[in-house]
Amino acid sequence: MKESFSGRYGEILQDMLAETAGSILIKTDVEGFIEDASRGIEALGLRLSEMLFKPHLADLTTPGHAEAVRAYHEESLAGCTPANRLEFPLASGSPEKAWYALSLRPAPDEQGRIVGALGLLRSVEGRRSLEGELAAAAMTDAATGLANARAFQAMLAQLLARGSNGAIALFEIDRFAAFKLRFGHAIADDVLWAFGSFLANVLPEDRILARLDGDRFAVLMPDCAAPDALALTQDVLATFASLSGEVKGGDMRLTASAGVASFAGSLDTVMAHAERALVVARAMGGRRAEIRHDHSGKGSQLTGT
């Protein structure tokens, strides 16, 4: 780092470096051209000592963001920036842009005149990646890795808002409460994970699967007519019953029931129809599917046996 940094701007630098670590320090003139920078800038492909003409701050980013960088520099010199930093993609030949955040403050000379700006430039890829992971976690069921109830309702609401045709199916393992009491929570959790994996593997790839709560799983079937959704649900239940067999060490056979409803009405209406159909299926002995596909309350049913 040049002597000018440690002397004239030492107090400002100390304050700024206290805010963050691992940043690239930049000094610009009043026009926004980079006069000096810490060695970290070489990682961005800039060797200032070898350049005949100094690059501008706007040269760091893509053409679509260059004007925003120029405006941010001007506002920083005037001390009227609406934000403490500006994020922009780094200019590179790669199709995947690396994002950086730039923080600027006006830099005065000995007489107090603003002669440029001091800035900190740091990568925000790690933060963006973490934010993406947190967002995904908020929409994912931790036990099964499937979408959770929040994500499922958001996707269903979006489909209904688009006026999409299709159907929803709610699945529930028969007599699961009794199963949990008999075999314990650990085995019950394993069964839930296995049932979710089974549904993920047996359902077509274009179906949207989620775990709602407890042992209830839900499937969105866009552009699938109600009779076709019912037939598919019937096949799923029959396959599960045939594969599960009797539980090891007991005489309890694992089966499941389902309620099917078409995309008709609001989100609450569709969910209520599917839940009522599921209740009826379980009340009739389980291992079957029931369907409700209109507002009249009339429906058709088909067992899963």
**Topology, number of strands:** 11
How would you sum up the global shape? elongated
The low-confidence parts are 295-305
Whole-angstrom Rg: 30 Å
Oligomer: single chain
Strand content: 15-25%
Order of strands across the main sheet = 7-8-6-9-10-11
State the CATH superfamily name of the largest domain.
Reverse transcriptase/Diguanylate cyclase domain
- Class from secondary-structure proportions: alpha+beta
Q: Please report the first level of CATH classification, the CATH class of the largest domain.
A: Alpha Beta
The CATH topology of the largest domain: Alpha-Beta Plaits
Order of helices and strands: HHEEHEEEHHEHHEEHEHEE
Mean pLDDT: 80
Give the SSE map.
Layout: H1 3-7, H2 10-17, E1 24-28, E2 34-37, H3 63-78, E3 86-89, E4 99-108, E5 114-123, H4 125-138, H5 149-161, E6 166-173, H6 176-183, H7 185-202, E7 208-213, E8 216-222, H8 226-244, E9 256-262, H9 267-283, E10 288-292, E11 299-303
Parallel strand pairs: 9-10
Antiparallel strand pairs: 1-2, 1-5, 3-4, 4-5, 6-8, 6-9, 7-8, 10-11
